[in-house]
Amino acid sequence: MIIGTGIDIIEVRRIKKLMEDYGERFFQRILTQNEIDYCRKFSKPDLHFAGRFAAKEAYSKSIGTGVGSEFGWKDIEIINNEKGKPEIFHLKENEYSKLSFELSISHTEDYACAVVVCENVNPPSRK
Length: 127
What we know:
The chain has four helices and five strands, in the order βααααββββ.
């Protein structure tokens, strides 16, 4: 049963500006070292940083909390599987780590977007 969806879009130039203004500090606040390493291996890392940022925002919308006391930036990690599909891994055990999530990330030179679908794969049975 689907219990939430989230979508986010961000201008890549915003991420470029944050990279220029704050350097590593910004990304270390919102991304894990694995995510930073993944993005840095591309010739245009800003596109991938923007995609990861959008993915975490979309995740927060799919669970209905936004980023704050119930969900922190580093509660999850976005890692691509062996086929290249981005997947969400929970780094913190909580009520959301028991749910299933599907993620899609896309970007152009100007925008990055992500969509997350949150699903309860073991919904309670009706009595």
